[in-house]
Amino acid sequence: MARPIAAVVDLERYPGSAVARLGAHVEVFGLHSQSVNDLTHELRNLQPTILFCGIHHRIDDELLGGCSKLRMVASPATGLTHLDLEYLRHRAIRVLTLLDCSGVTTNVFATAEHAWLLTLALQRQLFAAAAAVGNGTFRRDAFLGQSLQDRVLGVVGLGRLGRRVASYGTAFGMEVCATDLRNACMDFDSMGVRMVGLEELLHRADVVSIHVPLDQSAMPMIGTDEVALMKVGATLVNTSRGELLDEQAVACSLVDGRLGGVGVDVLAGESDPTFDARQSPLVRAQSDGFNVIVTPHIGGWTESAVSHTRSALVEAVLREVGGA
Q1: CA separation (Å) from 106 to 99, 254, 286?
Q2: What is the separation, in whole angstroms, between the first and last Cα of the chain?
Q3: What pTM, to 2 d.p., does this model score?
Q4: DSSP-derived pairing of the beta strands 5-9 and 50-52
Q5: What does residue 8 show for φ and ψ, rounded to 5 degrees?
Q6: CA-to-CA distance for 57 and 226, rounded, in angstroms?
Q7: Does 219 or 53 have the greater pLDDT score?
Q8: DSSP, residue by residue, 11-37
Q9: Any idea which residues carry the catalytic annotation?
Q10: Domains in the chain and their CATH numbers?
Q11: CA distance 82 to 268
């Protein structure tokens, strides 16, 4: 009897030991197609039982319609926006994500580090200053920056990543306030974090950093009304999901001078097959020379984080198939 097939996007990013563990129970094939059409054909030819997907393809009927043997989708992420969960439930396809890997992300803070990188770079107009030097202009006049000490950091969401960013703010001598509904029972006084409502946070913070899961009922979290509450010259950072921001409203706030800088690692609709980053209002604002930094969802994309989380995902799959 032929063994089940596991098709793996970015197979080269999985540690050899994890691939060997998986290969002891299923046939492992790497997927190399970049376009949706090519990946669809590749999957139809393989007819996998398990798909280890990435985050840059929408996992839906268009992609999986021809995969009659598929029984499980494993995603090395905590976000779910790239997964058509209703379709997968209808097909009775089991979904595993890092949310199912108990405790594995407890000490993984790569995305928090990236959020802080964006925060620091925006305060000092770092990318624009470096680009100017590369173009032959070694003058500081146009790049008067802002210090973080004695300013106010507002953290939206005090989960694993939000708490780490709050600790960075404290280390930099900032006053830290936060809003969080999911962890309201925790003792944040000991962390030096003052709990406030979202409106007060937006009104008081010089830097707002977002660390919440996507809630379809609350999209977008930051739109025209919320931006209007923020301090003139404030900085906004989002490393969670692009849909949390009304990108047009945020971009307009840069043009009219309300916001002093915006840093995002995520864009709305980035998992859609027709997604074109150049159409994002924030990418256009970056191209127009405003203090905007857009990075391509690389917050958790570090060697240690990728190795750790993908190994854990393989172990979670093996437990499901009885190979643990």
Answers
A1: 11, 35, 33
A2: 21
A3: 0.92
A4: parallel
A5: -125, 120
A6: 31
A7: 53
A8: GGGS-HHHHHHHHTTSEEEEE---SHH
A9: 241, 270, 297
A10: 5-103+303-321 (3.40.50.720), 110-294 (3.40.50.720)
A11: 11
